[in-house]
Amino acid sequence: MNTAETTATPTRGKRTRSGHSSRRSRHRGSIDRLDSGSLRVRVDAGADPITGKRHRPTVIVPPGPDDEHQAEVALTRLLNEVDEQRHPKTKVDIGHLVLNYQDERKAARTTIEKDGSLIARHIIPYIGSKSATKDARKTIRALYKDCQRCRHHCTNTNWIEHRTSRKHECDARCRKHRCKGLANNTVRKIHAILSGAYTMALAEWEWWSVNPIDGLAPPSFEKTDPVPPSTTDAAAIVNEAFRRELTWGVLLFIAMISGARRGEVVALRRRHHDPIKKVLYLRDAIAQLDETNELIEKGIKNEIARHIVLDDTSNQLLIDYWAALDAAASEAGYDLDDDAFFFSLKPDHSTPLRPRSVTQRYRRMTRAMGLDTQLKCLRHFNATELIAAGVDIRTVAGRLGHGGGGSTTLRFYAAWASEAHQRAAGDLAARLPELPAVLDQIERAKTAPEAPFERVASRIRSRILAGDLADGSVAPSIKEVAATYEVAVGTAHRAADLLRQWGMLSAGGRGKRPLILRPAPQQPTTEQPKDGQSVAAALRREGQRPLNLELHYLGSAVKVFAAEADPADARQLDRLLRSAVRRHTAGADADIGDFELIVRNSGEPTVVTAFVSL
């Protein structure tokens, strides 16, 4: 058996023997002869910061004619490494390292969640138990190669890759596994996690003095070849979107002309559009968490708050769009304020759309059209068309919110909202496809329903017209509609909102069920939208015409704007007046009686009417 370990003196100790082993003691180190004949060289490197136990780096020298000399050399090397703080202070494994890094790093919540998913799927199961110091570069390099070989890290290819982990009946989507590696850019994200963890352990935790994976290079960037849609395809996409739904068409059109990211588009609120300055502000973004599907509102990427100057046609489209939303909300008993989201499934526009739902709907629509494209390609389309129009790169980078523009002035929109920026808006408008003709979506749903809620509303409408639901009778409840037509409660709510817009359901109230309203017969109109008609004209209802409006406060003009309305319709004029007052006063309390709306026909100086709200 070995001799008991004793504290060594600074000078060379005497050799001692006991049984089959011996020890040579050194200052903070020792050389022991083991039963196998090998020499064990061990030094004291202090306390392990993780376990609190003594950390003793060890080297085994095999028996041989010069084993004692090699042991002396190994002891000197270990002592030098400890003295120069080049030897790791802990035997922590890679799993413990990256989990500590996740807990202490400062990053956005979405970044933490996405990186946590990569750690759980690719790092912990395969190299989590490996030493973070011994052969670390070799271990991590092997992980990168395995990730590029197969994203499932399979060892047997003879298994079925199911479309879902839940209980299901297999179909064509459940197929035999075929190895497909992770993209190089995904492997680079794994490298960024590991590199960040090792750097934090070096700089902040002082677990080691030399980075064990220093010099380990990640896979190279993949060469991307973005293929934006052509102008012909872009026109077809926008036409199809407007044909399906006005809101869907406006969403894709904004994405196309602004080059905004998906999360930035769905985060737009009413206050982000200034119709007077013709500007669309990009300030926030909506993110959807992977684990819980929770929506969170966060700052814009790269923290580059920017704004997009609109051309006249695009600006008028947004004005008309909000007029349509105001009318629909008013029919449902709501008043949209400046915090209302541009795109929402709620009648009061209090919540945004889900970013992933937008991507999925776009993919389904383009596939049905026979196009192989992605939602992000609209961003590429914007950049490509601006560059083709001769707009300078700095202006393009500013409009897209790119952080690597080469100049710190790109971080401030004032630096790039110049004459070139104004020219960019006009040039892009000239290269975009002409705004498509669209049907009145509310009227279209009566005869050609597409969405589930439209089909439910159309069937209820048929029952009302047939007399199954009598005029003035209490309407079926939302739960009854959902059960009768086998749809979700949310779909039943949307069907009820559509019936209100058709004038076939009363608004109801707190504790009161809405009533059935049978519309009076209307004389058929022969006026139909023509091909090439603008969206503004398509939104025009019977009796409406272009108007020039002036907002007066205590007799003085304070705001001039244009809109389409029926000058004989007090409800429309009241809505325009209140909307103009709200924008003029920036939401502050104001006496509506101090304001007056002067109405003129477009291009005519004669005053048609002066409207005040009583």
Specify Rg, calculated over alpha carbons: 35 Å
Largest sheet: 5 strands, antiparallel
CATH topological fold name of the domain at 231-431:
hpI Integrase, Chain A
Strand tally = 16
Please, what is the average pLDDT? 79
CATH-defined superfamily of the domain at 231-431: Intergrase catalytic core
Individual helix count: 20
CATH hierarchy class name of the domain at 231-431: Mainly Alpha
Please list the strands of the largest sheet in the order they lie side by side: 1-2-3-4-5
In the predicted model, the low-confidence regions spanning at least 5 consecutive residues are 1-21, 406-419, 524-542
Oligomeric nature of the chains: single chain
Secondary-structure arrangement, i.e. CATH architecture of the domain at 231-431:
Orthogonal Bundle
Could you say which structural class the secondary elements and strand pairing correspond to? alpha+beta
How helical, in percent, are the residues?
A: 40-55%
